[in-house]
Structures are given as C-alpha cells and as structure tokens.
C-alpha cells in the first residue's frame, strides 16, 4: 500500500469515526429514559436535578451537547461515568487490555486451528473423510459464539468441572501487576503460575470466540488451496516428486492465504463485537462486559466512549489487514 492511499485511508477513518460519534450520540438521546434519574435519590429537589444535568451538560440543546462532547473528546476527555463516577478514559484503559488479550488469543486459536484443518481437508480431497469434515465445519459455522459459550459452561463448568467459569484471575494467585495486560506481563516475567491461571480462565471464552472463526477460515482457505493446487507451478512440483503435504504447505499455501487473510480481518472485527456477550456469560472483566452495564444504567458518557473505542479498533484492524495483505502481495501496494 503506497503512502498516498494510506493517508487517504486514515482520512476516511477519521470521517468514519465522526459518523460513528454522530450516530451513537443521536441514538442515545432519542432512547426513552432519563440518565439522571438512575443516579439521584428520590428525595432530590428540582434544584439538585438541575445542578446534576448542568454538570453533565444535559440541560443544553442537542447541538450544543454534541459540540461540547466532541470538543472534549478531541482534547482526550471522554467525560465522567454517570454510574461509576470515574473518568471514562481511565475505565476504558483498565478494561480494554483484558478484551484485547481475549480477542487476540481467540484470533491465534482460530488461525492455527482453521489453518491446520484447512490443510488437512485439502489433503483429504476426494476421500470418504471429506464429506464428514465438510459437515462438521458447516455445523461449526452455524453455531454462534454465545451458544458455544453456554455449551462450554455446561460441559466444562458443570458436567466436567475442570475449568473456571468466571473471572480473569483467581484471587489466590499471589501476583501484583504493573500493567492491565496481565497475560503479556506474566509471560514477560515468566510467572508460570499466573500464566496457567490466566489461560485457564481464558480457555472457554477463547474457544467460544475462536471456533466460529476457525470454521470460516477452514472453508475459505480450503477453497483457495484447492484452486491453487490446480495451478501449473503446483503440477510441475508434483511431477518433480514433491509429497502432497509439501505441495500444499510449501507451494499452494503462500498463494492461497491472501483472500483468507482479508476475510479473517473482517471476521476479527465481528469477533471483537462478539466479546460483549461472551464476556458477560463468563463474567470476564473486559470492555464488553462493562458496555452491557453501561447500557443497563444508561450511562451516556461511558457508552459513547466504549462505542468510539470499538469503532477505532474496527478501523485500525481493517487498515492493518490491508497493510499485511499488501506486504504479502506487492501487486496490491498501489491499489
């Protein structure tokens, strides 16, 4: 991707974020309910209510409220949470790392599992095992992540209670973290006890998020591999006596990974959105779980900050996917 198209993409990203800000701001204002009523006592006087509305700018017109909020966001001030009475940016900074670690762990699992199964499915082409693999993959595609989450809770939390069903880290693990990136910090410190406990708590959420992604990768990559196996350079390598596994991995895979990469980037953004429900099911202390609490409490500043954060993540992932695709395929660099 050349410099000029990249600048264009960044400009479009800012426009997109502005559109997201407008939409979420307007939608939250037309939803019935008074956020001030959620945080004030029944004995409050009209003067108390007016003072609280003035504090959060809710006594102004919609246009004035939006400009006031947008100007504050531009300065890095996302406001104060109505329900938690804390700075929104601080709350997001505390919860976002947990969601990112969970999402990237699910991405790694989905890529590894999907890639290996796609290669295996390609090697099983035109064998009795192929329809069985296709049926199982279609089943995994049809089941959404939150259904996997509930099934995993019943399986590994109730019938075979071998994994923790809630939280991020057992309180009994003696560790004091300097950053909110618990897993990365534990790996850097070689704290194997903390790493093991963190991975145990992440296992079921990662499976719930990663299984549908793996199924999508299997279908897309397998089709691309089968098409690549018909190309002349693969046929030539086969004539030279190269084994089927080497043909797939060494010759076909590098040319089949492009379309899969693009689709994986798109699906990864959907998966991050899916963390909202999955985190809630497992009581995982991430940004998605906090988003549900913010909606229940009609915490306007917190909801707006979380939605903008998710929007920025989606845009960043799409740009990163395009950059990686351009590096893998230089012909796209000027596209």
TrEMBL record:
Q: Which UniProt keywords apply?
A: Cell membrane, Membrane, Transmembrane, Transmembrane helix, Transport
The regions listed as transmembrane in this protein's record are: 12-31, 102-123, 135-160, 198-221, 261-282, 302-328
Gene Ontology biological process terms from the UniProt entry: transmembrane transport
Query: Which InterPro entries does the record associate with it?
Result: BPD_transp_1_N (IPR045621), MetI-like (IPR000515), MetI-like_sf (IPR035906)
Start and end of every ABC transmembrane type-1 domain?
96-325
The entry's localization annotation reads: Cell membrane
Q: Name one GO cellular component term.
A: plasma membrane
Question: Which family is annotated?
Answer: Belongs to the binding-protein-dependent transport system permease family.
Entry protein name: ABC transporter permease
